[in-house]
Amino acid sequence: MPAVPAGARTLPGDGRAARAHNGTVDEDPIPVSRAVHSGTAKLLPDIDREGGWLLTVDGTPQSYVDLRDATHLEFEYARRVAHVLDLAAPPEHPLDITHLGGGALTLPRYAAATRPGSRQRVADTDAALLDFVQEHLPLPPASGIALSDQDARDFLDGSPAASADVAVADVYGGMHVPPHLTTVSYACAVSRVLREQGICVLNVADAAPFRFAASQLATFGTVFGHLCLVAEPSVLRGRRFGNIVLVASHTPFPVDALARRAASDAFPARVVHGAALERLIGGAVPVEDGDEVPSPEPPDGAFTVG
Questions:
Q1: Are 103 and 131 spatial neighbours (Cβ–Cβ below 8 Å)?
Q2: Residue 209: is the preceding peptide bond cis (ω within 30°)?
Q3: CB 16: neighbour CB atoms within 10 A?
Q4: Residue 28, Cβ neighbours under 10 Å: how many?
Q5: What pLDDT, on a 0 to 100 scale, did the predictor assign at position 22?
Q6: Which of 48, 85, 107, 238 would you label with 115, given CA atoms 20 to 30 Å apart?
């Protein structure tokens, strides 16, 4: 969140939306929208894929959910985060996952489907949005997903130490990452809830020369010893603004396996680590409290419904 829709095809934006009840889709889908804390939320159907839903807030794509197949991930960045989740443990091994930012709960649904028995906790400040999603895109029974309408930092501070295997940070206030979620103290709060071999995954949006992404890598690098990023070549070459997935861990992460998975996607991505990552970080310095760096303003049309 926000997200660039994957693929060349146009995602739904024609005013129709499906209504779901108990995980099924009505034969006559109708549009649904609601005023939520962060703006006007809408659920739109994917007219090319039955059961597919697009969540937008104030016209910006936030999440895509397939009620019939939770493993179908339409957004490129979500697939890249899913690759990290897939590599975090042996297949189907349950994980304890903390999600900071909820949207339509795409990645919690994915983890529940691919790792049955996982315990997942989701924090999002927008209670009205969580209610809207739950009403129209209900979670499957016994999903193991618990929702909390809390600020991400407050949620972390109130969570037990060493209680999560993975933390997924995908928090946006409108088009920007909240500044208090960009600092060294925030990185420390994330680290505290992770177990020794835990992994932190962050979704940020940036463009060359990657000042914001570099500042976040420098910030999380003060706490975590191993870093890499995943992004598509056109973003890394400075041709466009887009999502960049950052991965931080205390123990080595299988970057080669991640690179193979990212390269095999329909829209391939590259993994940057080691010396190449150090060059990208350059002279960026960690962000301390009081020196927060605002995330960049997306150019017009970067995150829109077609």
A1: no
A2: yes
A3: 13
A4: 8
A5: 47
A6: 48
- Give residue-wise pLDDT tens across range 112-171: 999 999 999 999 999 999 999 999 999 999 999 999 999 999 999 999 999 999 999 999
Average pLDDT of the chain is 91
* Angle in degrees, 0-180, between the axes of helices 255-263 and 76-87, rounded to the nearest 10: 140
What's the rounded Cα separation, in Å, for the pair 157 and 193? 9
Buried b (16+ CB within 10 A) or exposed e, 134-148: eebbebeeebbbebb
Q: What is the pLDDT of residue 56?
A: 96
> Contact 29/44 with Cβ under 8 angstroms?
no
Check the CA dihedral 277-280-285-288 and report its sign.
Answer: negative
Per-residue pLDDT tens over the stretch 169-184: 999 987 889 999 999 9
Strand, helix or coil for residue 27: coil
Identify each DSSP E strand in 117-249 by its residue range: 119-123, 145-148, 164-169, 194-206, 226-231, 242-249
- Cα–Cα distance, 28 to 136 (Å, whole number): 14
* Angstrom distance (rounded) from CA 165 to CA 61: 28
Secondary structure of residue 109 in the 3-state scheme: helix
In this predicted structure, the answer to whether residue 45 has a pLDDT above a threshold of 50 is yes
CA distance 268 to 123: 30
Q: Residue 252: what pLDDT? A: 97
CA-based radius of gyration for the chain: 18
Closest by CA position to 246, among listed 192, 189, 170, 194: 170
DSSP structure class, residue 268: -
The H or E element containing residue 41 is: strand 39-45
Contact between 106 and 78 (Cβ < 8 Å): yes
Contact 224, 250 (CB under 8 A): yes
pLDDT at 5 over 70: no
The model carries a pTM of 0.91
Mapping DSSP to helix (H, G, I), strand (E, B) and coil, where does residue 152 land? Answer: helix
